[in-house]
Write the structure tokens for this entry.
Amino acid sequence: MLVTSGQNPGSSLVHKGWLDFGLISLNILLPGSQ
């Protein structure tokens, strides 16, 4: 979980969304890496 202080609650959700998107992209680009 990302802990962001002094920012709006939505920003952490956006950051987590980008992180999840990055992980999915890596899984697609690098199949069988896990």
